[in-house]
Amino acid sequence: MVEVQDVWRSFGAGATAVHALRGVSFTARRGELTALRGRSGSGKTTLLNLVGGLDAPTSGRIMLDGTDLAGLDEAGRLTMRRDRIGFVFQSFGLIPILSAAENVGVPMRLRKVPAAQREERVQTLLALVGLADHAEQRPTELSGGQQQRVAIARALANEPALIIADEPTGQLDSETGRSVMQLLRAVVRSEGVTVLVATHDPQLMELSDRVVELRDGQIVD
């Protein structure tokens, strides 16, 4: 599903250049939850941004579901992100004035999915994440764990092949964080989606199929 080949990402040039990634290579298989482990500054977020098409590598190659991201122009990357990738952020990223159901429906509105089909998908996803009874509540009326569950439902809206989650439990207590990770684990099974999650919490590694450790921009064997 994801193939990263000898990827470098540098910022700046010459003696002052900062090498955030140094020859990173790994694969994430379809229908697998892969955890990127490493301390802050290890390169996890940089790598997720590259795989998600939010940034481009200095050198190397990234294949996503058979597509070489380097061969896409900005419009092509935008379409890839909209149709094939779902994003889950540490800060939830929900729109405050919208209800849970409306937040989940936003990606489908961008694709101009018919209203009846959109509403059915929203109901299905809120049920999947255990929030069917909270559809009309706004983010401020939900707990942190519930907000992240809405964010996961939103990430699934367009039936992506890949979900990228950057520290999805970073603002949650350990018990709630584990519940969210268990939900991601269940999503892998029920939706057949690939999940790539960055975390520094060793307790969450137990729920992953594979753990890829980054240290100073390099994969640690």
Automatic annotation (TrEMBL):
PANTHER family: ABC TRANSPORTER RELATED, IMPORT ATP-BINDING PROTEIN
Coiled coil: none
Pfam families: ABC_tran
Domain ABC transporter residue range list: 2-220
CDD domains reported for this sequence: ABC_MJ0796_LolCDE_FtsE
Domain of life: Bacteria
A Gene Ontology molecular function term of the record: transmembrane transporter activity
Annotated Gene Ontology cellular component terms: membrane protein complex; plasma membrane
PROSITE patterns, alphabetized: ABC_TRANSPORTER_1, ABC_TRANSPORTER_2
Protein name: ABC transporter ATP-binding protein
Listed InterPro entries: AAA+_ATPase, ABC_transporter-like_ATP-bd, ABC_transporter-like_CS, ABC_transpr_LolD-like, MacB-like_ATP-bd, P-loop_NTPase
Organism, scientific name: Kitasatospora acidiphila
Record key words, sorted: ATP-binding, Nucleotide-binding, Transport
